[in-house]
Amino acid sequence: MENSEGVKIESTVVTEEPLISALDIALFVVIITVAYFWYFKRDKQSSSSEKKPYTIQPSSLSSIEQTSNSSFIKKLKSTGRSLVVFYGSQTGTAEEFAGRIAKEGARYKMKGMVADPEECDMADLVEMKEIQKSLAIFCIATYGEGDPTDNAMDFYEWLQNGDADLEGLNYAVFGLGNKTYEHYNEIAIYINQRLEELGATRVHEIGLGDDDANIEDDFVSWKEKLWESVCSHYGIEETGEESNIRQYKLVDCSEVLPERIFSGEISRLKSYENQRFPFDVKNPYLSKIAVNRELHKSGDRSCMHIEFDIDGSKMRYDTGDHVAVYPKNSPELVDKIGELLNADLDAVFSLLNTDEESSKKHPFPCPCTYRTALTYYLDITSNPRTHIMKELIEYASDPKDQEKLKLMASSTPEGKKEFHEWILRDNRNIVHILEDLPSVKPDLDHLCELLPRLQCRYYSISSSPKVYPKSIHITAVLVNYTTSTNRVNKGVATNLLAQLIPTNDELPQPTIPIYIRRSQFRLPPKSQTPIIMIGPGTGLAPFRGFIQERDYARKEGREIGEMVLYFGCRKKDEDFIYENELQEYVANGTLTKLHLAFSRDQPEKKYVTHLLEQNADELWNIIGEKSGHLYVCGDARSMAKDVHSIIVKVVMEKGQMTNSQALNYVKKMEQQKRYSADVWS
Fold it and tell me: Is 460 a catalytic residue?
């Protein structure tokens, strides 16, 4: 209002007096000054009416993550810090680890800060030597098939292409990976080596965390030895002070207008009411559920075929891409937390970073209600890590509960054993912990600070845009299982999706936020190139899109190459998904061969790997003699590894190669994108 009034006044002056006099200018300055004073006086009065001595304006992840000054060196110098912890994170774990390291730095007289390399000018690493006793730590995840995370991509490329002199830079690296994948911790290992090549000094050996085992244990063990190395390198001693200082402070936002309160948006306030292209991780598209049908024919398990309507969204996808789905926690679990902590879940609050220099002002979109935070922003179903056990100790009024938490938070063999059995083996989440340790009553705002962010779930797209340009299909198994404590744990995303059943056209259709994530899992450029697809269970999903695309090309009159599919499930009459579709593709010639393995339809279990071994001649004919492509989708832990071993064996025998030559041949296939995997553990 003030600005529009100012413009109006200026317009009036110019219109009424073409020749501006000194008096006109003086009057204009007085008016602007009064308006300026009135505006900020009013703002100040508004601020003083809040219960806290500062105001909180709604902010988004995009605004949180942007900084006007990309020089982390200047921030370190201006705030008297010597420790910076960079993170390369795709799901939030590396960022969480980075925060824990930075916080612990205070115990060693090293004031720390967490930094996103995407927001920083990483060339400033050459200036770290100007800060006395400085240290840069990198918590780096390896993503996909040996790729950097999105936010670490620029830094990775800078290291690859640059030749900066990093002499005087002290560093340490912790990698986050998964041993079931071939490129285990590849990015962290590269960064660790490359920094040394550029002249930097490694203060502590690299740590490699395995998410397939116990990455928390890996991290804690590495972190303890890290600080021993730091003390030795810098000649410092631990202060012995436990740092339980909170990173965020609570702000009462009960007087904030409703239209300024987040209600589940990922980034921009009211983004679901006013959708704007392009759609991505920070700006998902609110898609209607067009189809949701059961694929299993019988049995007590469920597999859903779901179609997301993207008509009018301008979203485009390619066969083989992934779709990200933003879930929300069940109301029952959210209400349970409110009940256990005797909290008002509809109170509006905000968490403000106590570090004024941090570019991350809030841990999630604020202000919002506790119900919104627990429903849309926080992960309340995963196993909490040890640092949460440690923070909960002060809230336990029963000495027995205190001792149990202290034990699980410790790094002793007994403590690690107890944490592994009570938390990991018994699969307890934060709700279960509060139920089983009834004297533990943390402040809800502190709990919201401690819990990790709720992450989107990725699904292989099971359709082709050539056939379905206005919809995205996925194939998802409903996740439900009973734990050793006789609790039923439910998959957050699949159980939400199971409830989103389309109604008739007269009623509003259910919706869910999604966006498309690009993949390297692609059909060969030439449609006549022969391919082999190995996809048991829901591993069939991307191949359904592949087959649709080749079928579309055939109907257009183009030549298509051989398509061989290996599919497996438990029982033909129970979980043979898309059976009719696949049989039709065989009948019309699109699908050359369909090899089926039903593991429980006979006394001895039969899997797709058995069929691969039996069809060694066909396999070599396509990948060896015809230079075809091979694709694997499904379980990384066993199936994908077994397939890889069989491929190497077939190449050895049919290609008359040594083991070393066969391994090199398969490696070359991977480099040429002739051997691709879309796997999960």
Answer: yes
Domain formed by 329-454, architecture: Up-down Bundle (1.20)
Q: Name the token pair of 152.
A: 């670490």
- Residue matched to tokens 């204009």: 28
633 is catalytic: yes
Task: Please write down the long-range contacts of 142-145, taking CB distance under 8 Å and 24 or more positions apart.
Answer: 142/175, 142/176, 142/177, 142/181, 142/183, 142/184, 142/185, 142/186, 142/187, 142/188, 143/90, 143/187, 144/520, 145/181, 145/182, 145/183, 145/520, 145/677
Per annotation, catalytic residue among 355, 401, 445, 678: 678
Question: Which one, of 144, 141, 300, 163, lies nearest residue 210 by Cα?
Answer: 141
Does the pLDDT at position 31 exceed 60?
A: no
Sequence-distant (≥ 6) Cβ neighbours of residue 153 within 8 angstroms: 118
Place of tokens 């009960």: 254
Q: Tokens 């083991």 identify what position?
A: 659
| pLDDT tens digits, 494-535 | 999 999 999 877 788 999 999 999 999 999 999 999 999 999
Equal fold, 72-234 vs 329-454? no
Q: Is the pLDDT of residue 621 over 80?
A: yes
For residue 140, give the 3-state DSSP assignment.
strand
- Residue whose structure tokens are 């389309």: 502
Distance, CA of 562 to CA of 529 (rounded, Å) = 7
Q: What pLDDT score was predicted for residue 240?
A: 67
* Tens-place pLDDT, residues 528-559: 999 999 999 999 999 999 999 999 999 999 99
Task: Tell me the DSSP string of 612-665.
Answer: HHHTHHHHHIIIIIS--EEEEEEETTTHHHHHHHHHHHHHHHHTT--HHHHHHH
**Nearest-5° Cα angle at 42, 37 to 43:** 100
Q: To the nearest whole percent, how much of the chain has pLDDT over 70?
A: 89
Alpha-carbon distance of 160 to 175, in angstroms, equals 18
Is 375 among the annotated ligand-binding positions? no
181 annotated binding-site participant: yes
Q: Is 680 annotated in the active site?
A: yes
Asked if residue 30 has pLDDT above 90, the reply is no
**pLDDT tens per residue across span 105-145:** 989 989 999 999 999 999 999 999 999 999 999 999 998 77
Please pick, among 280, 382, 410, 680, the residue that the annotation labels catalytic: 680
Which of these is catalytic: 253, 633, 635, 676? 633
SS3 string, 260-289, reads: HCCCCCCCCCCCCCCCCCCCECCECEEEEE
Integer CA distances (angstroms), 444 to 325, 373, 388, 431, in order? 27, 11, 13, 12
Query: What are the φ and ψ backbone dihedral angles of 234, each rounded to 5 degrees?
Result: -100, -5
State which fold the 531-679 domain adopts. Answer: Rossmann fold (3.40.50)
Is 458 annotated for ligand binding?
yes
The active-site residue out of 82, 267, 271, 460 is 460
Per-domain residue ranges for the chain?
A: 72-234, 275-327+456-519, 329-454, 531-679
The domain defined by 72-234 carries CATH number 3.40.50.360:
yes
Determine the Cα–Cα distance for residues 256 and 366; give it in Å rounded to an integer: 11
Stated length of the chain:
681
What residue has token string 């400033």?
A: 124
Q: Is 178 annotated as a binding residue?
A: yes
Fold of 275-327+456-519: Elongation Factor Tu (Ef-tu); domain 3 (2.40.30)
**Which tokens hold the place of 7?**
């413009």
Find out whether 123 is annotated in a ligand binding site. Answer: no
